[in-house]
Amino acid sequence: MKFGVVVFPGSNCDDDTVFALQHNLGQEVVKLWHKDHDLQGCDFVILPGGFSYGDYLRTGAIARFSPLMNEVIEHANRGGYVMGICNGFQILVEAGLLPGVLLRNLSQKYVCKNIHLLPQSKAASLTSSLESRAYTIPIAHGDGRYFTDADGLKKLNDNDQVLFRYCDADGNISDEANPNGSLDSIAGIANAGFNVFGMMPHPERASDEALGNADGRIILEQLVGVLV
Amino acid sequence: MKSEINDGNAIPTVETARKLGVLPEEFARIEEILGRTPNFTELSIFSVMWSEHCSYKNSIVWLKTLPRDSDRMLAKAGEENAGLVDIGDGLACSFKIESHNHPSALEPYQGAATGVGGINRDIFTMGARPIAQLNSLRFGNPELAKTKWLVRGVVKGIGDYGNAFGIPTVGGEVFFDECYNTNPLVNAFSAGIVEVGKVAKATSYGVGNPVYIVGSATGKDGIHGATFASEDISDKSNEKLPAVQVGDPFMEKLLLEATLEIIATGHVIGIQDMGAAGIICSTSEMSAKGEHGMVIDLDKVPTRQTNMHGWEILLSESQERMLVVVQKGKEDIIQGIFDKWDLHCVQIGEVVPAGPDDAGRLHFYQHGELIADVPAHDLVLGGGAPQYHREYREPAYYQKFKEFDIDKISDVSTEDIVKVARHLLSHPNIASKRWIYEQYDSMVGTANRSTNRPSDAAVVRIRDVSRPDYKKGIAMTVDCNSRYVNADPFIGAQIAVSEAARNLTCTGAEPLAVTNNLNFGNPYVPEVYWQFVQAVKGMGAACEKFGTPVTGGNVSFYNQSSDDGPVFPTPTIGMIGLMEDPAHQMTLDFKATDDLIYLVGAPKNDIASSEYLYSYRKVKESPAPAFDMEEEYTLHQAVKQLIVKNLVQSVHDVSDGGLFVALAESAMPRGLGFQIASDTNFRTDAYLFGEAQGRVLVSVKPAQQGEFQKYLGGDQKIPHALLGTVTAQDFVVDQEVVIGTSEARGLYDNSLGKIMG
């Protein structure tokens, strides 16, 4: 079992993700350089948060054309596991590995704070064994408003592809607890094959007792679980 | 004297010099140094290098009086791009604060963004990876449309730049007063960690070593920006808009990674970022330090537009650039790293020996012609740059403020307490700055130990994959109540240092060192210069007392306008502390009902310069609040021990808004309340809302009351008083409910957002 964290120019959560996987979860993890064409035998590829290519043009729109993305897409199409966190989610959407788009937050402002997530999908290995309670996880994005058309939303719901919804501290899903105006309070989704995951919140930022919150670690531990 | 070096421009006169901000006596001095009249390019060079911004000519004689040494200092003020403090285990913390006031006044978004970029380059050019940022912001009346525009622009500028750059913004301060209507203050702080012995130097030596420019291409932005920062703001200032630079955080992020990679190779002789005054500043400062010369071919500098004049290339303040001197023979290694990060890396010249009569000259060529020939040493601070003793005079208001008589102000009634409480909790100077800080990424780097632990100073762990269990952290804070400094610059500056030290102490950290950002009006106005001199004296005395030397910083004069006069004198203190053992990181929030609330430190019958007196009673003229440095110091030592001995559940300093606001801020995070009794020996307003210094609010488990009192009373003789207890809800004073906890939280959390819309 081996994790790979892709480093794009402008990625800034690559080290955080490596630290969480390696130190907090005790996993083997390597960094993958975006200009290479080699996944180095990784079983699970993570596209980390940050501002790949400065978010210029549109979030994730340029990184999607980085050389290594050819291999990432092939890996996913073969059923290999891929996860995008924040900017990584935006890149996966641009690359067509996940449905929908991520729009500017309804507030028109970047927002960084702790929010609450309620696990949803019973079909996705990432969330199926999580307790049904509010997990406290940080968000940090300007473009996190998930959107898709009515058919797309129906498919996500019918196939149980919604991984997380924003909720309040007591686990209630409401507009007030939705920090960016995402459609149906969606915070994370899986593809139809349940091997590609994307989420805007940052579990790697809540994976260490030193930071006073380890809810994210419980979510990351599911990644290790899916590979068993 | 005739110019012998032709740059294609007319020979400058004293009048040209004046237009570039060079005084007639300085022009004469330049002629003397060169032995001839400078050409326009050379005059431009001197004008920026001798501007206040680069030379500190009007401040350096006083800055030199500040304490600059302790056993932890690895680089003293002025020696490197930023201060460097030994934190043990082979690690050092590099930190600095810098202003971007003038650009932010005209173009708040880019002004603030490039301020963030500049301060971070100062840190990573030393080989230190930045770990956290703070900022200290001051704006005018928040109800004014212009202020809202400035706040929105500055905050978005800081956020967009810092967030993309990927270093967390973990704290700061924001203050509103009409004196900042025209001149907002934007001070940005950054701190980084570097291994001792692997610090890169801003120097240049070794004849034949290649000189590289790396990073962004050079454009016409920011030309004479340093000169612009050395003038009052007027209605003509908008004509200087091209003097404001444009930032690119993506480029900065790439430059950070590439810079740290080349420094790690060990093949870098010297490196300096290009901020104020661009290429000329880096080439002259590095050459002067290394006592060598340089020959530079400006045709090789990558430019954004064609037909740039030589002086434009030399003075351009285009962002995200570095000058690097590399060991000859290692060019390919350096080039390879910049290629990897898709950054420009172009050799523009080489190091040459010093001449027999000088310590190194700079020769700049363009189109095959020598367009400037200047001695590096004469351009720089500590070399030939002028140093002035300016005239100063005590302003008339100073004694007038001291005539304030508290007995002429009626005390508050029970009904008044409710009104004052609501006023203070929703006042933008006191209310939560959530609307601002939520726009900053405070958590990237997974190092912010304060996200889930509110405290008086931010704590950042030193996270390193190679030693994942490393425990130590750095605590940091920026502080200055400029209203106090205006009332009394000597005491006000002492308070600023004390408050910074108090914030670190209340968090459980050991104060280590200071960086300062001295924001003042026009130094040629004797009353303004008096404020500066008094503030530096006060700061020096307090830094001496707390053992926190000043490692460097920034002076920003000319924060004054033709309409509004000078801003309050604002010597912002950035202070770092060492969090040796995170088990002793202390928080400010009350933990449990029935815990006992104590005030440690002596209450005073004092409301001077408080937010209550100033904005509720609308009395603008009063002296600085009560302050005694010995009492303050003793208090800090006691608080430190209370934390180490685990005798306290929470610690929060009493500052803006007084005791009541401190109580509210401790109660609100967990939705708790308090009931306290005031002390009839004091005026009620002074007791609840006065801002006398040297006081700290703590909560104590009932089971530890005896031990707590024994330590403070028996052993230490520190004044302390039991105020009451932590309750489940409501803020109760003398049996009257002043406000409910949830209502207080609503006011405190949302007031600033409501104003900003």
Automatic annotation (TrEMBL), chain A:
EC number(s) recorded for this UniProt protein: 6.3.5.3, 3.5.1.2
Record localization: Cytoplasm
Highest taxon above the source species: Bacteria
Record field: catalytic activity: N(2)-formyl-N(1)-(5-phospho-beta-D-ribosyl)glycinamide + L-glutamine + ATP + H2O = 2-formamido-N(1)-(5-O-phospho-beta-D-ribosyl)acetamidine + L-glutamate + ADP + phosphate + H(+); L-glutamine + H2O = L-glutamate + NH4(+)
Entry annotation: catalytic residues: C86, H202, E204
BP term (GO), one: 'de novo' IMP biosynthetic process
Keywords: ATP-binding, Cytoplasm, Glutamine amidotransferase, Hydrolase, Ligase, Nucleotide-binding, Purine biosynthesis
NCBIfam families linked: FGAM_synth_I (TIGR01737), PRK03619.1 (NF002957)
Protein name: Phosphoribosylformylglycinamidine synthase subunit PurQ
Organism in which the protein naturally occurs: Persicitalea jodogahamensis
Automatic annotation (TrEMBL), chain B:
Domain PurM-like C-terminal: residue ranges: 207-354, 594-730
Listed name of the protein: Phosphoribosylformylglycinamidine synthase subunit PurL
Enzyme class: ligase
One Pfam family it belongs to: AIRS_C
Residue runs in coiled coils: none
Positions bound to Mg(2+) 2: D122, D273
Family matches, as PANTHER family: PHOSPHORIBOSYLFORMYLGLYCINAMIDINE SYNTHASE SUBUNIT PURL
HAMAP family listed in its UniProt record: PurL_2 (MF_00420)
UniProt source species: Persicitalea jodogahamensis
Keyword annotations of the record: ATP-binding, Cytoplasm, Ligase, Magnesium, Metal-binding, Nucleotide-binding, Purine biosynthesis
